[in-house]
Write a structure and sequence with these properties.
The protein is 76% helix and 0% strand. The protein is an all-alpha fold and 102 residues long. α1 runs antiparallel to α5, α5 packs antiparallel against α6 and α5 packs antiparallel against α7. The protein is elongated, with a radius of gyration of 17 Å.
């Protein structure tokens, strides 16, 4: 799941780069970014994209994964309580994941 999440993040960043550096306004207007109406026009800033619901929930999901997965690998035996509490983030992860995909 962590590798798929990182690959998905990389793909989103690449798409953002492509659409943000596209000089043709028609390509922007036919893109999912342009059709959404969430942005004022072509070349939105990264902050504008992050302020959208998918952008915000995507960053939350990435933060949860970056906290939970290292704890599961390195702290499971040494500090079981930390492992247990970070894995309870799975409930938050599932809820945010459903909101992200809606």
């Amino acid at each position: 799941v962590m590798l798929a999440g990182l690959a998905d993040t990389g793909a989103h960043l690449y798409n953002f780069y492509l659409y943000n550096n596209e000089p043709n306004v028609e390509v922007w207007e036919n893109s999912p970014f342009g059709k959404s109406g969430a942005f004022d026009g072509p070349n939105p800033s990264y902050l504008e994209v992050m302020r959208t619901l998918p952008g915000l929930t995507g960053h939350i999901l990435l933060a949860i994964m970056l906290i939970a997965y290292p704890c599961s690998i390195f702290l499971r035996r040494r500090n079981f309580n930390m492992f247990w509490y970070t894995h309870n983030l799975f409930l938050v992860f599932t809820i945010v994941f459903m909101i992200h995909g809606a």
